[in-house]
């Protein structure tokens, strides 16, 4: 792979290691995998956290949602700050915040402090993730090199999300739930110290001299925070709850105010012209749908395995290992294919495979065996989603200038978080309503009736997740361009021989072609 420093109006100051793009890619993948890992690693530890900190069952959701809500709310601001203040600088600041919050979460003995620390973790991740992705896209500037790098990136991000469940089970049943947070501390410390020796810095001098869109930053961040929080609240409070309705209405008002502000300000936080790029626009909407299905899968597959099939936390985590490997295989396959064929059919094929796997999960019996009945759809979904991640990341950065790569990175990460929150909120409402209806008319053994009702509700959840995935595929078919990558241009290291000079008198008429002057 070849890497070229960003040029143009910005200045690029390169560290000695910046000429080694493989090292940069490895470093960025470790950083981003830590962010994705923390989205899921805490789920299996929740019962132990509840017992240790004497938390109410209704407060457990905030340990998960505090991280995701703040992460999703601040991602676009983080992407813009990366372009303005410097990507390496913001990445180090985010990692420092992330590591300090992880240490606090591991040491805390109160539920309130744990939830607050999770929110600060989300803020650190929101500063880190877009800075890391925009550094990758500005380091790998040729299309084939960038596509391969995004393939590795997509594979590790997907695997990290799945392995978070496994590591959560291992750490919780091993040294204890506090190590779910402690494990982040040495990784963050190492990355903060190593970043100046590994990563180049990129500063956009024009933006540093300009004014910062404070009003846009406040309204957008507050609107996204309120939107994602309100969507998460629907899982427990429902869509008709007054707090949910007020929160969603407030989010709409703030986002409309943000749009009006951006249309009038000279230096907008989110230039609305970026949405004129049809590829970027379609990639983000498709990502919302795909990640709605992905997060729904994690949420309800864990519940199905533990509440219907009777798995314990560790067995549930181990059951996800083949899914993680399948994601890696799918992403690796896509990153190889997309350099040879257009990315659009790769994306559509991946979404179709994922939808097929989710439909199989929607028909699982209550006594399903893992090898014959659970594993095959897990493999289909894993390969399909892995194949989808790569072309979606490529599409989101397709044709975006270097000075806006941080913004594009923040936008696609925001779509992932918002999509996950939206998918779980919508599908959980339908699934748990079905569970309640089935229980209302149940007779016989209460435990068996509850198990049957849960199975029915979870089947409905998998079916709706498949509908999300199919809708993403239809959108890609209808609106996404081919995403054909340009082949690398061969470079001849030999000097070009000068053309021989004709000693005869020249024709006064202009020639169609001639040697360069």
From TrEMBL:
The chain crosses the membrane at residues 21-42, 62-82, 94-117, 123-142, 149-171, 177-199, 211-231, 243-261, 282-305, 317-339, 346-366, 378-400, 461-483. Gene3D superfamilies: MFS general substrate transporter like domains, Multidrug resistance protein D. The keyword Transmembrane helix applies. Coiled coil: none annotated. Residues 24-484 form the Major facilitator superfamily (MFS) profile domain. Keywords: Antibiotic resistance, Cell membrane, Membrane, Transmembrane, Transmembrane helix, Transport. InterPro entries: MFS, MFS_dom, MFS_trans_sf. SUPFAM superfamilies: MFS general substrate transporter. Residues 487-517 are annotated as: Disordered. Its main location: membrane. This is MFS transporter.
